[in-house]
């Protein structure tokens, strides 16, 4: 193997071509996936962009151990095939220290590199971590129901269902819970996902760089309406956002207990809905309704 | 469905629960498919029964198979269960790929409920009733022969494990005809699977089928580990064992420790559903996060329970078909052990997205990547095993090579998923679905198919048809890539798993490609069946009575094909690794032993089938709240156990004279066989006596 590796070094062109073509193939796959894609591979915010870059970084690093196998395996099969008896035959050859060090050492080094990177990225991209920005984040409370998403804007005292308004260029801090089974909140072009669970709160900080519309969804199977549980994220300017909130306050009905009871029933909505005001403490009440803390109302809207 | 309301004779069961009645009352496509599946099952059973009657096979079936406690027969029955369940689950996979490929802005042919049952049964069957029985059967058949033992340590317990697994499989099959299965996926996460959100029998079918098989697997683990520790032939030290035995040992240890959390989790879920407990409910103190932890405390080691035996098979196949000892034996043992230990330290990576802090995620992420080190070592050890060998590309070898290539791609995506932030983006997506199929199809299924091709002549005395095996191989390989590479892309494009209908037109082409791939995979399965039929018909030209068709290296190749009930006429003395190769080199293979002794073998027993039938009745009755049958099933199971403890005559003796006559006759036959050079391995010249390779 060692002398063969030396002879291989003379033909360095071949591996280079293979690396380039493999990289090219990956890029092609990515670019095809990127076209008109709603995944993080076509990012619309800094978080999704980092996730994509990180994915590519891992692929490149891993290529160090994978590409040699793709080259050496066909070569071995060809050289040591029974039919021609061309390679040397040493049925008892079973060990070599240099190779041993190489095959343990190389993966170990790669894991150290990737592990170091992983540690920092985990902190850097922790969904709970507030995003650095000049402006304070927009706060939105999201409640997962069967099979819809309710978004409450506590500062604006309005609410929307199956669509969410955010401000382009301004961080948004989602506080999330579930009024039913466990679900998972995600806007793929903006970033990752986080579970929502009854009686518990999770958080997710996101940022849309430019105005636009992005699909959001629940990724955790929750029954018959699962496939339909999608929502639209509208990233708009601050002025448009304020105008929208004012319009909602002026023209839409309140999200009171009766409206909530209707929403809490399992259903697929034909169109997004909006509410001009929100019963006080609805979000914390939904959580407390499961925990027996200071319950405001149960998930189905009835008093305890 | 409350407990109080169901004290009738048939519990909660009504005529409307029979799938044919549903099809009749609601004749839509989805119900037709369900009804057709039920019909295939019922008609298939009638045909099997008719054939058994026609060929007068009932007696053979009962006395030679169902009541047998011979590890070889138990092993073969496990693999038969695996094949039957594979047939169902692979068709379900094709059906789901078809549904998704036509369901872009269109509801397709399956209702969401039917689709939910399909992905739940597909996953549960593939893991618990295809992969588990396959590896358990393979270990059962091969491992005792490789360590020079006559049976496992507890032969009856072995049969009971088989029957518990078969009972679980039977419950899943019954759910095809009577009632519905769970829609909660193979993981059955509460609170969705709690009584509040999933009333009805579906989740109960899941709970009881999984509980039965998980108890069976725990007992199997105990049995195998004890066998390897206590039953090795003289001189067969641990570090002389073939690698398949090492991986079997690691798998057994994992089974002992990892099945318990699953059994506990399913029983706790059952208490929630049946008795109003609140372990995993939303309110009154329940917490589903405990379920996720318990389930994956089992679920991650489970991946290695399945994959390590396959690693063992690859080690044997690659070494044998390279005509060379394994490269880095000790390295591979250390790597296998490291994987087994590390497998218990990574379970949290299945739910990085549950909201725990960055430090917890980072630690589990790094632990996960650490597993990549010993796995990478293994891959290169296998490659180096081929280097300086004489490689023959048989079907078993082709599957092993395709495994190496494909598995490293799965390893790459595994490292991607091990990274918590990136996992946030691809968790629950088709990228994840592609990843675990990328590990389990080449890693487990290809390994088991390779093992089946490799050891089939040992078990049945004739070689399988290589031509059909290779045709099947190409279908499996291209089918795999065509089915799952598009799923990676779809995952990156934001497509999520378990989705019955799509609203993104750009997914269409990828989904269609994936469906074509699924058809190829199905063709691969059909070709395996064709191979079996062709080989059985040509068995007289394919016989290998001398027992060593591949120039094998370990002890199982040193006896006849098929081997006698007692495996070894005389327990062999082992002096090093590759025990049989050593004997052949020293010219001691096929030498007449100095003396023969009486051999004690266990008698057949009806205890295991009785427990199996009792377990089916118990499970079915619990699903449908038929309380009298619950009591009857329970009493049957424990009654059989108690009755057995009064049986004193459990063994019989095969006299030395009989052993001598059989063995000497076989040795004479072998000595008359011409040796076969490796070039003629796949010709009728190969009667199972190998020419030493030079």
Q: pLDDT under 50 segments of chain B (min length 5)?
A: 1-5
> What's the architecture of the largest domain in chain A, going by CATH?
Sandwich
**Please, what is the CATH homologous superfamily of the largest domain in chain A?**
Cupredoxins -  blue copper proteins
- CATH architecture label of chain B: Up-down Bundle
Strand order of the largest sheet of chain A: 8-5-1-2-3-12
What's the Cα radius of gyration of chain A? 27 Å
Q: How many individual helices of chain B? A: 21
Q: Could you list the spans of chain A in which at least 5 consecutive residues all have pLDDT below 50?
A: 1-15, 294-304
In total, the number of domains of chain B comes to 1
If interface size is counted as residues with C-beta under 8 Å from the partner's C-beta, which chains form the largest one?
A-B, 99 and 96 residues
Mean pLDDT of chain A: 87
* DSSP strand tally of chain B: 2
Largest pleated sheet of chain B: 2 strands, antiparallel
Provide the CATH topology of the largest domain in chain A: Immunoglobulin-like
Q: Give the radius of gyration of chain B.
A: 25 Å
Share of residues in helices of chain A: 40-55%
* The CATH top-level class label of the largest domain in chain A: Mainly Beta
Write down the CATH topology of chain B. Cytochrome C Oxidase, Chain A
Helix content of chain B: 55-70%
Mind explaining what this structure looks like?
The complex is a heterodimer of chains A (304) and B (694). Helices cover 41% and strands 21% of the residues of chain A. With 304 residues, chain A is α+β, with helices and mostly antiparallel strands. Chain A has a 6-stranded mixed sheet. In chain A, strands 4-10-9-6-7 form a 5-stranded mixed sheet. In chain A, β2 (148-153) and β3 form a beta hairpin. Chain A is elongated and about 85 Å long. The termini of chain A are far apart. Chain B has a single domain (57-605, 650-680), classed as Cytochrome C Oxidase, Chain A, CATH 1.20.210.10. Chain B contains 21 helices and 2 strands. Chain B has helices at residues 19-25, 29-54, 58-66, 71-102, 112-146, 155-177, 202-230, 243-275, 288-321, 329-342, 358-386, 395-418, 420-426, 430-460, 466-492, 508-537, 539-542, 579-585, 607-624, 627-644, 656-672; strands at residues 599-602, 651-654. Chain B has a two-stranded antiparallel ribbon. In chain B, α9 (288-321) crosses α14 (430-460). Chain B starts with 18 loop residues before the first helix and ends in a 22-residue tail after the last helix. Mean pLDDT of chain B is 94; it is low at 1-5. At the A-B interface, α2, α3, α4, β7 and α7 of A face α5, α11, α12, α13 and α15 of B.
């Amino acid at each position: 193997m060692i002398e063969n590796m030396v002879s291989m070094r003379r033909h360095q062109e071949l591996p280079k071509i293979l690396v380039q073509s493999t990289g090219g193939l990956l890029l092609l796959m990515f670019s095809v996936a990127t076209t008109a894609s709603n995944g993080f591979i076509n990012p619309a915010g800094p978080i999704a962009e980092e996730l994509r870059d990180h994915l590519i970084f891992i692929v490149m690093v891993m290529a160090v151990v994978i590409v040699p196998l793709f080259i050496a395996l066909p070569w071995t099969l060809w050289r040591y095939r029974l039919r021609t008896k061309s390679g040397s035959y040493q049925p008892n050859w079973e060990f070599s220290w240099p190779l041993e060090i190489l095959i343990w050492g190389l993966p170990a080094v790669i894991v150290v590199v990737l592990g170091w990177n992983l540690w920092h990225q985990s902190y850097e991209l922790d969904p709970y971590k507030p995003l650095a920005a000049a402006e304070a984040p927009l706060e939105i409370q999201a409640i997962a129901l069967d099979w819809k998403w309710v978004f409450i804007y506590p500062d604006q005292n309005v609410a929307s269902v199956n669509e969410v308004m955010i401000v382009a260029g301004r961080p948004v801090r989602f506080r999330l819970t579930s009024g039913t089974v466990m679900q998972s909140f995600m806007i793929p072009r903006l970033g990752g996902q986080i579970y929502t669970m009854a009686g518990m709160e999770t958080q997710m900080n996101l940022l849309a760089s430019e105005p636009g519309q992005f699909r959001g969804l629940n990724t955790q199977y929750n029954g018959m309406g699962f496939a339909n549980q999608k929502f639209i994220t509208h990233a708009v300017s601050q002025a448009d956002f304020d105008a929208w909130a004012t319009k909602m306050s002026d023209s839409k009905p309140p999200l009171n207990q009766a409206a909530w009871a209707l929403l809490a029933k399992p259903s697929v909505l034909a169109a997004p809905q909006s509410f001009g005001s929100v019963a006080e403490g609805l979000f914390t009440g939904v959580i407390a309704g499961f925990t027996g803390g200071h319950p405001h109302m149960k998930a189905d809207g009835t008093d305890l | 469905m409350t407990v109080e309301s169901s004290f009738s004779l048939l519990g909660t069961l009504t005529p409307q629960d029979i799938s044919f009645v549903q099809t009749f009352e609601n004749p839509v496509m989805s119900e037709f498919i369900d009804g057709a599946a039920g019909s295939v099952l019922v008609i298939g059973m009638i045909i099997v029964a008719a054939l058994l009657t026609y060929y007068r096979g009932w007696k053979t079936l009962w006395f030679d198979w169902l009541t047998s406690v011979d590890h070889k027969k138990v092993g073969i029955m496990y693999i038969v269960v695996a094949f039957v369940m594979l047939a169902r689950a692979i068709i379900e996979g094709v059906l789901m790929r078809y549904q998704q490929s036509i369901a872009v802005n269109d509801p397709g042919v399956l209702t969401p409920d039917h689709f939910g049952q399909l992905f739940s049964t597909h996953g549960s069957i593939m893991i618990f009733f295809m992969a588990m029985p396959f590896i358990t059967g393979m270990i059962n058949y091969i491992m005792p022969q490789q360590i020079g033992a006559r049976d496992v340590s507890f032969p009856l317990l072995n049969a009971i494990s088989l029957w518990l697994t078969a009972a679980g499989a039977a419950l899943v099959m019954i759910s095809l005809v009577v009632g519905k299965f769970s829609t909660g996926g193979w993981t059955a996460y509460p609170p969705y699977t709690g009584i509040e959100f999933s009333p009805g029998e579906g989740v109960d079918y899941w709970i009881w089928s999984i509980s039965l098989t998980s108890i069976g697997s725990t007992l199997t683990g105990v049995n195998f580990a004890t066998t390897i520790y206590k039953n090795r032939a003289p001189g067969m030290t641990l570090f002389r064992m073939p690698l398949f035995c090492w991986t079997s040992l690691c798998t057994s240890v994992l089974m002992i420790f990892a099945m318990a959390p699953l059994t506990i989790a399913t029983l706790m879920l059952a208490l929630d559903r049946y008795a109003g407990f609140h372990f995993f409910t939303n309110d009154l103190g329940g917490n589903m996060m405990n379920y996720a932890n318990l389930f994956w405390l089992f679920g991650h080691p489970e991946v290695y329970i399945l994959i390590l035996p396959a690693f063992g098979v690859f080690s044997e196949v690659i070494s044998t078909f390279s005509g060379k000892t394994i490269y880095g034996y000790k390295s591979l043992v250390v790597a296998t052990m490291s994987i087994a230990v590390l497998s218990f330290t990574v379970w949290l990576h299945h739910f990085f997205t549950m909201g725990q802090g960055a430090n917890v995620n980072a630690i589990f992420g790094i632990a996960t990547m650490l597993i990549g080190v010993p796995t990478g070592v293994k891959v290169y050890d296998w490659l180096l095993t081929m280097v300086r060998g004489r490689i023959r590309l048989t079907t078993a070898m082709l599957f092993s090579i395709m495994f190496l290539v494909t598995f490293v791609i799965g390893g790459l995506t595994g490292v991607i998923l091990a990274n918590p932030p990136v996992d946030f983006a691809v968790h629950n997506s088709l990228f994840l679905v592609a990843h675990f199929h990328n590990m389990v199809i080449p890693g487990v299924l290809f390994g088991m198919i390779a093992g089946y091709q490799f050891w089939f002549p040992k078990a049945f005395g004739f070689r399988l048809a290589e031509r059909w095996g290779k045709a099947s191989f190409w279908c499996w390989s291209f089918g795999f890539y065509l089915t799952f590479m598009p799923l990676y892309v779809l995952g990156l494009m934001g497509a999520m798993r378990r989705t019955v209908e799509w609203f993104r037109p750009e997914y269409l082409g990828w989904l269609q490609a994936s469906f074509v791939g699924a058809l190829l995979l199905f063709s691969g399965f059909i070709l395996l069946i064709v191979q079996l039929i062709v080989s059985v018909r040509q068995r007289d030209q394919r016989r290998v009575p001398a027992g060593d068709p591949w120039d094998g290296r370990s002890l199982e190749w040193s006896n006849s094909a098929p081997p006698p009930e007692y495996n070894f006429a005389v327990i062999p003395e082992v002096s090093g690794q590759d025990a049989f190769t050593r004997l052949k080199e020293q010219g001691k293979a096929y030498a007449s032993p100095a003396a023969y002794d009486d051999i004690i073998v266990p008698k057949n027993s009806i205890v295991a089938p009785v427990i199996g039938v009792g377990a089916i009745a118990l499970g079915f009755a619990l699903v449908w709240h038929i309380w009298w049958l619950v009591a009857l099933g329970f009493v049957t199971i424990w009654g059989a156990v108690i009755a057995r403890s009064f049986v004193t005559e459990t063994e019989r003796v095969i006299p030395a004279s009989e052993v001598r006559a059989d063995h000497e006759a076989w040795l004479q036959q072998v000595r008359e066989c011409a040796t076969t050079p490796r070039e003629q391995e796949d010709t009728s010249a190969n009667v199972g006596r190998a020419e030493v390779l030079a």
